């Protein structure tokens, strides 16, 4: 019945005994310790208590259940060092917690409310039911903290529009696997669903539909608030100068007109880096974005810029000449990206860019994070080595392009990634801030997002949270992940099966 | 707005004009023609009218809508030649229909109620809405009939248990693509969820769980009834002698004890063909199955029999000697399958068996259908040729193992199959009764079934229903299938996207 398999991702230090304590839904209490800096009224924790009550007691409906006098109460007491109840999680937020479960009582101590939220998730996974539906938790002692501070999931809401409710559901599931960054890839060629206050034409003309396929300011606030309560940062990506075709519809003179010989072909390329108006547009847009999204990071993209349209355009070529770039278009791209990064620096935001940017940029600020997305393990190991050697911080996504599907248990590939297995010093390894699971949207929308994402992303979650030595066996992980997947199903997440078998409670939706 | 793309699978003969007629949900009437053999009270059609009313008018809730006097009524008049309202669809059921849409009226004529149901599906796909939500249908003339009489989908409820509601939802979606056979692969090694009246221990001990992971007699009746109303046959598969490990738990002395040298190893192999009790068990079970499932066909499996356990068992070897089979275990398997087929013949059922059986069996009745599941196109074409040359009827599944997934638009592979492109006479080609999409269950349960099945299975549906010449271009099919996929989404089916883009109405569930 009970097993150490009960928590995913695996806590760093975990001891427990066979001594078990019954839990009664009607005599179960969350409370703040007297010394706790946070007390009742703490928005993050008060909301977490309500959520986790239902997650701990999934069968309990509160209707018509008698309370028996002999039921012993169980208290879970939360203590946090900082009253950061109304803040947002950020890159340095501690997620450490200590959880101690004994007779009638559990103590959960953390430096921050975010650590407390992680500890509540762990506690909820420790509780189990016997065949008669009674709830139990075993004597347990846990000291836990994440291996990496950045554990993200990318959703692409440009290639397909993903309704807000599906994003919120994804945030719920992210919290169950202790992910802490939602990377919102909101702009790309096919559509631009973000309804800008300053440039409403971008979505009016660039979204799939100006009314039904957009994220209003209120939608965005809802996503940020839902994420915050779960200790999840929202990292918006406003990718440029490529991947911006959808912007061209609502903003004239922004994209580069491509030429065929000496006449415009009618097609448009990347953002036009030769026009001052481009930088004014980007500064205005990024200023809005900076105020809408509270996170101190912003993702600026910079990937896969195709130079052929720039090359064809006489104004761009004239600009190249004027700037002394010769025929080296990488210098033009460098010039563009440096301007954009400077804008974000001015706005007090730290930039994350795709790895492409690193190749061209000597002048990029040292605090910029490079996002590694290309290639095979041999390839990304080389890049990890090269970029950290240059003193840059990096974020690893390459091995976790989870939109790529194949038949069978591909979660094993996601699990066996070794993010620090590259040639470099201990100082270099510290520059790896974490990893990201990317769900690009070519073939994904709300109809199939959840079963493609879960529990495959959870394999990466354990790699990013847990101690690698304790989680080196994929075969030992298998039954634990099966068990965790059944927990997700029980919580209403359509997480797909890993292999033949069953869950005690199968998915009940349609 | 309106296009010929509107019906999937493409009708055989289809003409329409730009003349369009408004439809008002409050002045829309289904009715039986005076000459129709079926009249009000016809269970199949009365139920179809209710279903299709909601499918035709998805926005209409019936609440608070005023009826305007100027609204012109629209009548759809159904005429069928046979009063087969209370029957089950069978292998020879005509699905032909003629649909004529003109001002204020549509006439739907069919030989059977099953043809009328197909015609209602077509009509429902012809109706469209403008940007203000008003409903229209264009002047249309359709003569339609299926290319193949057998168009099936296999679900595997042994490797994972699929709750009844998910099976019913699959039947709904099957009707939208005009599939007409639900092949229920109900037994296999991992579990046996069918609750038998005569052998209740089979599921009590062989299901994943004896109470929650079974199909009761009432569940089975519900599935059959739901399928019947949609013109879908339910073809049960009781696979043997292999793929039966789950039976061993509830029926002692049924499976062959495997030996390691001269002692039993504790493992069990296929059904034991050396014991008379085996045939008594199978006869009793198949008798029950024959009465529970009304279809005149039964699938007997017969695939992938591993001889090593039989070879190890001294009793089986003694039986081989007694029967004069020498060391040719294919003769033993032939002996077993012939006995089982004879049982079904006695029960007035026609057998379908997997292709493996054909290789060993001279004595198999000529009306047995061979189910081709192995190999590459080169391979299955050879088998189609060889088996039809022997005068056997065949059913093609090999190119439609849809559980195998890959990144990208693999529906194109399912679409471009040419089931009759093999070396053989016209007589041989007539022996191809149809095809089947197989969703084996290793990695599939209710969490991911729907988006894996739809619209990928619909690609096969058009191949099996429509004229191959008119549907030879996969590129022309692409926008039509995208459009159809959005219709499925609108109807609440989580059909996954084919590529970048959007539906006017995205999936609204979570």
From TrEMBL, chains A, B:
<keyword id="KW-0443">Lipid metabolism</keyword>
<dbReference type="GO" id="GO:0005975">
    <property type="term" value="P:carbohydrate metabolic process"/>
</dbReference>
<dbReference type="Pfam" id="PF14845">
    <property type="entry name" value="Glycohydro_20b2"/>
</dbReference>
<dbReference type="Pfam" id="PF00728">
    <property type="entry name" value="Glyco_hydro_20"/>
</dbReference>
<dbReference type="GO" id="GO:0030203">
    <property type="term" value="P:glycosaminoglycan metabolic process"/>
</dbReference>
<feature type="disulfide bond">
    <location>
        <begin position="486"/>
        <end position="503"/>
    </location>
</feature>
<feature type="active site" description="Proton donor">
    <location>
        <position position="304"/>
    </location>
</feature>
<dbReference type="GO" id="GO:0006689">
    <property type="term" value="P:ganglioside catabolic process"/>
</dbReference>
<feature type="domain" description="Glycoside hydrolase family 20 catalytic">
    <location>
        <begin position="148"/>
        <end position="467"/>
    </location>
</feature>
<comment type="subunit">
    <text>There are 3 beta-hexosaminidase isozymes: isozyme A (hexosaminidase A) is a heterodimer composed of one subunit alpha and one subunit beta (chain A and B); isozyme B (hexosaminidase B) is a homodimer of two beta subunits (two chains A and B); isozyme S (hexosaminidase S) is a homodimer of two alpha subunits. The composition of the dimer (isozyme A versus isozyme S) has a significant effect on the substrate specificity of the alpha subunit active site.</text>
</comment>
<comment type="function">
    <text>Hydrolyzes the non-reducing end N-acetyl-D-hexosamine and/or sulfated N-acetyl-D-hexosamine of glycoconjugates, such as the oligosaccharide moieties from proteins and neutral glycolipids, or from certain mucopolysaccharides. The isozyme S is as active as the isozyme A on the anionic bis-sulfated glycans, the chondroitin-6-sulfate trisaccharide (C6S-3), and the dermatan sulfate pentasaccharide, and the sulfated glycosphingolipid SM2. The isozyme B does not hydrolyze each of these substrates, however hydrolyzes efficiently neutral oligosaccharide.</text>
</comment>
<dbReference type="InterPro" id="IPR029018">
    <property type="entry name" value="Hex-like_dom2"/>
</dbReference>
<keyword id="KW-0326">Glycosidase</keyword>
<keyword id="KW-0732">Signal</keyword>
<feature type="disulfide bond">
    <location>
        <begin position="258"/>
        <end position="309"/>
    </location>
</feature>
<keyword id="KW-0865">Zymogen</keyword>
<dbReference type="InterPro" id="IPR017853">
    <property type="entry name" value="GH"/>
</dbReference>
<dbReference type="InterPro" id="IPR025705">
    <property type="entry name" value="Beta_hexosaminidase_sua/sub"/>
</dbReference>
<comment type="similarity">
    <text>Belongs to the glycosyl hydrolase 20 family.</text>
</comment>
<dbReference type="InterPro" id="IPR029019">
    <property type="entry name" value="HEX_eukaryotic_N"/>
</dbReference>
<feature type="domain" description="Beta-hexosaminidase eukaryotic type N-terminal">
    <location>
        <begin position="7"/>
        <end position="126"/>
    </location>
</feature>
<dbReference type="GO" id="GO:0016020">
    <property type="term" value="C:membrane"/>
</dbReference>
<keyword id="KW-0458">Lysosome</keyword>
<keyword id="KW-0378">Hydrolase</keyword>
<protein>
    <recommendedName>
        <fullName>Beta-hexosaminidase</fullName>
        <ecNumber>3.2.1.52</ecNumber>
    </recommendedName>
</protein>
<dbReference type="GO" id="GO:0004563">
    <property type="term" value="F:beta-N-acetylhexosaminidase activity"/>
</dbReference>
<dbReference type="GO" id="GO:0005764">
    <property type="term" value="C:lysosome"/>
</dbReference>
<keyword id="KW-1015">Disulfide bond</keyword>
<keyword id="KW-0325">Glycoprotein</keyword>
<feature type="disulfide bond">
    <location>
        <begin position="42"/>
        <end position="85"/>
    </location>
</feature>
<dbReference type="InterPro" id="IPR015883">
    <property type="entry name" value="Glyco_hydro_20_cat"/>
</dbReference>
